[in-house]
Amino acid sequence: MDDVASIFERYESIRSRLPLASFEDEPSCVGSLLDVKADVDAFVFDAFGVLNVGETPIPGASDRLNQLRDAGLAIRILSNAASYNHDRATEKFRKLGMTVEPHEIITSRDATLANLEERLWGCIAAPSDDLRDIPSETLRLGDKKVDFDRVDGFLFLSTEVWNDDLQALLTSSLMANPRPVVIANADVAAPRDDGFSLEPGHYGHLLMDMGATDVRFFGKPFPEVFEMAEASLSEIPPNRIAMCGDTLHTDILGAAARGWRTVLVERDGMFSGVDAGKYSNRAGLVPTWRLPRI
């Protein structure tokens, strides 16, 4: 999956595994979020494709966050990033030049760890991840079959060093001895500076295709991260929260399932260079508003 069409088709093929939601008949096209701030009390932002692409900040994103705060609106960042802990997530945005407080960031890793059972977890993680925030016993998995076979479950945090051979090792171990698999990033793919990367969600759905039944996904579009965002915005009704994202099957679908309003951001992320409306109409995933950049 290396282009928008193939990623879209994969999301459509797993649609039955995703939440259900109702949608607008037609979206409204707007120039910026300032055009709709009177209809919203809190804006929740995806990161990749909305605030940044890889390690590159999107022009104007930081200024827009500040303008919305100055207008009295609450800001949250709701990211499916699970490769690093909460402190590193906060620091990443500061390095991008964005003023973001720790309480304004909620990640799929946060949601995963809040729901993690006590057992020996085989962790699929980035080499730089020290795993110190995992509230259970862990074993970092490499390429040793004996390690895959001895753990009580699998915690999939990052694809940085993952490949097809390791996926085959995981699949074989699970087929011989079924155990829980926790996918801490539900994305199938993500936009980067040089194209798209395959994310943990891709490999989790491959396991389900092979017959694995105890696979649990965290992050958008699944409810736990949205519930955490709502808890942090407890005075704001769902229909006054707007999710701003670049991906139909994660940002738009997940937020609509919670009764939030939705903003499809089209210029820099998943639908960069293509007609996002065509894909939206085909999937029946219709945002409240469409715009190029926030």
Could you give the topology of this structure?
Layout: H1 4-13, E1 28-29, E2 42-45, E3 52-53, E4 56-57, H2 61-70, E5 74-79, H3 86-95, E6 105-107, H4 108-114, E7 121-124, E8 138-140, H5 145-150, E9 153-156, H6 164-176, E10 181-183, E11 189-192, E12 195-198, H7 200-209, E13 215-217, H8 223-232, E14 241-245, H9 248-257, E15 261-265, H10 276-283, E16 289-291
Parallel strand pairs: 1-16, 2-5, 2-14, 5-6, 7-8, 7-9, 9-10, 10-13, 14-15, 15-16
Antiparallel strand pairs: 3-4, 11-12
Describe this structure in words.
The chain has helices at residues 4-13, 61-70, 86-95, 108-114, 145-150, 164-176, 200-209, 223-232, 248-257, 276-283, and strands spanning 28-29, 42-45, 52-53, 56-57, 74-79, 105-107, 121-124, 138-140, 153-156, 181-183, 189-192, 195-198, 215-217, 241-245, 261-265, 289-291. The protein is of the alpha/beta class. The strands form four sheets. Strands 1-16-15-14-2-5-6 form a seven-stranded parallel beta sheet, sandwiched between helices. A five-stranded parallel beta sheet has the order 8-7-9-10-13, with helices on one face. A two-stranded antiparallel ribbon has the order 3-4. β14, α9 (248-257) and β15 (261-265) form a beta-alpha-beta unit. The two termini are 27 Å apart.
